[in-house]
């Protein structure tokens, strides 16, 4: 009788070990599949990030903050470019506060509205592209600028256009 109990215990233990082995093997295979899927996704996302970074570099070619020649133009005159860029943007945005005809945008606003410059992009040490709108009409303007010795900024509108209104 004692031998049968030990034999049943041995068979039960053997079944338990086989069950544990099969269960652990299935869990490990499942985790390996998830790990491989995650690795594939990480590789794909890393490739996407690389492509997007290259696109950002290509798109920011005409950008004062990345143009070494334009930065050196201001630095040779003793300007701190990191402080100068926000100053130029603030100055062109402050033209929105002028009453009457906008000093940079050569178009009149419609029906008592005010034309405002919305977005500004400094292309280099001499050029700015900005978009403007009065809420109904919108367009873009190409502006040259010059920083005077007394840190005032002069703007000169070179070209502008209004988008057609449908």
Describe the structure.
The chain is α+β, with helices and mostly antiparallel strands and 166 residues long. It folds into 2 domains: 59 residues; 99 residues, no CATH class. 49% of the residues lie in helices and 20% in strands. The chain contains 3 helices and 4 strands; from the N terminus they run αααββββ. It has a 4-stranded antiparallel beta sheet, with helices on one face. A hairpin with a 4-residue loop joins β2 and β3. The longest helix has 58 residues. The model has no long low-confidence stretch (mean pLDDT 90).
Task: Give a brief rundown of this model.
The chain is of the alpha+beta class and 166 residues long. Helix content is 49%, strand content 20%.
């Amino acid at each position: 009788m004692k031998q049968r109990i030990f034999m049943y215990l041995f068979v039960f233990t053997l079944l338990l070990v086989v069950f544990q082995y099969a269960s652990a093997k299935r869990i490990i295979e499942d985790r390996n599949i998830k790990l491989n899927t995650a690795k594939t996704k990480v590789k794909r996302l890393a490739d996407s990030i690389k492509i997007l970074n290259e696109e950002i570099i290509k798109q920011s070619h005409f950008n004062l903050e990345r143009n070494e020649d334009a930065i050196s133009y201001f630095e040779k005159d003793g300007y701190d470019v990191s402080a100068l860029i926000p100053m130029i943007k603030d100055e062109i945005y402050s033209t929105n506060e002028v009453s009457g005809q906008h000093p940079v945008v050569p178009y009149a606003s419609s029906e008592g509205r005010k034309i405002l410059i919305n977005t500004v992009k400094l292309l280099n040490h001499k050029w700015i592209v900005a978009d403007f709108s009065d809420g109904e009409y919108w367009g873009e303007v190409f502006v040259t600028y010059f920083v005077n010795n007394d840190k005032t900024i002069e703007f000169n509108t070179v070209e502008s256009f209004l988008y057609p209104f449908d």
